[in-house]
Amino acid sequence: MKKVISIFLVLATLVCLCAGCGKSSEKTTIYVYNWGQYISEGDEGSIDVIAEFEKKYPNIKVQYSTFDSNETMYAKLKNGGITVDVVIPSDYMIGRMRQEGMLQELNYDNIPNAQYIDASYRGMAFDPEDKYSVPYTWGTTGIIYNSKYVDEADVTGWELLWNEKYAGKILMFDNSRDAFGIAEYLLGYSVNTTDSAELQACADKLAEQKPVVQQYVMDQIFDAMENEEAWIAPYYAGDYLTMVEENPDLRFFRPEDQGYNIFVDGICIPTCAKEKEAAETFINFLIDPEICAQNLDFLGYSVPETEAKQYLDAELVANEVAYPTQEQLRNATTFDFLPEEISREMESLFMTVRNG
Question: 205-240: b or e for each residue (b if 16 or more CB lie within 10 Å)?
Fold first, then answer.
């Protein structure tokens, strides 16, 4: 009897395939473009997010590649010639790409897990109607320093990055927006200034710093700080939590009185995407509360959905580096989308400083 039932099931499956279900057996490939070291890949017993996705959706294959700054990602997409179905820019860059028509509107019928995104991360200035992005993570920027070599008395604010005592052991952001943001906080300007004189003053300040800078970095910061090749660097809180596991002498400091950046990175579908529905399936998977928690528990970044916190390590939820208090956030500011001509001016000034 069991054999008869088995034969019947096989025949039924074949009939289903012939009746139009065959499409489900076709392999769809989506191209995901994300920051380096910004998804859990199964290291140290953590979840392998892409492997789990492909296990759940065997007909969708993920081709994954990385970028090291918003500006690099933007240039690649703007210039064309590459296929990207999912991209994860930061807030201000989402605003820019949205205004330049580089993003597609999302179909939330395919992203039901968006219901779990907290209200505080909806309707943000860079995407006021939530048409083009779904929050992936949020976090803050501060200074990472090695307590073995850096005198705590010197850790007073952003000026630490200009301290000649540590010349040759200081790293600096290798992207214009973060670098100029630090100079703007230090000089007391708005981080969203469009005043050319203020931008020039920031460039001059960054030029003053150049003699003490060992190198301008993004992902290279991990090896340099963990291996004590450098002692001081500005970077993101989530990445600090990864680095400190490798080097417990590292500390994180937010210059709360001067101000610092708070950011949201969102998941988007660019206009060049060829597999929009499959891309939305991937987005929905990333923001499933349990997947989101397992992913960000390893990354150290902060979840934008309270529902996910029940799956997080309790120590991480209580860690004020990852989840600062409202008092600690009092002077935190976001980077807004700047007009294209201002972005170009800032980038040009930064390249002049960087290349000396």
Answer: bbeebeebbbebbbbbbbebbbeeebbbbbbbbbbb
For the cut 60, the answer to whether the pLDDT of residue 294 exceeds it is: yes
Three-state DSSP at 63 gives strand
The DSSP secondary structure of 120-164, one letter per residue, reads GGSS-TTSTT-SS-EEEEEEEEEEEEETTTS-GGG-SSGGGGG-G
Residue written as tokens 């290291």?
43
CA–CA separation, 252 and 99 (whole Å): 35
Q: pLDDT per residue over 123-164, tens digit each? A: 999 999 999 999 999 999 999 999 999 999 999 999 999 999
What span, in angstroms and rounded, lies between the C-alpha atoms of 61 and 44?
A: 24
How would residue 25 be classed by pLDDT, with cut points 50, 70 and 90?
Answer: low
pLDDT in tens, 59-108: 999 999 999 999 999 999 999 878 999 999 999 999 999 999 999 999 99
Neighbouring CB atoms inside 10 A of 63's CB total 13
Distance CA(315)–CA(300), nearest Å, equals 11
Q: Which residue(s) pair with 354 in the sheet?
A: none
Q: How big is the CA angle at 109 (ends 103 and 112), to the nearest 5 degrees? A: 100
Where are the strands (E) in the chain, listed by range? 28-35, 60-67, 86-87, 134-146, 170-173, 213-217, 232-236, 250-253, 260-267, 332-333
Q: Which amino acid is at 338?
A: L
The tokens describing 141, both together, are 């920027």
- Residues of the chain with pLDDT > 70: what percent? 93
Taking the C-alpha atoms of residue 87 and residue 81, their distance in angstroms, rounded to an integer, is 15
Q: In the block, which residue shows the tokens 């050319």?
A: 196
The topology under which CATH files domain 27-138+263-318 is D-Maltodextrin-Binding Protein; domain 2 (3.40.190)
Rounded to whole angstroms, the Cα distance separating 128 from 87 reads 19
Q: Candidates 3.40.190.10, 1.10.260.40, 3.75.10.10, 3.30.1300.10; correct CATH number of 140-260+329-355?
A: 3.40.190.10
Token pair of 128 as six digits: 């006021």
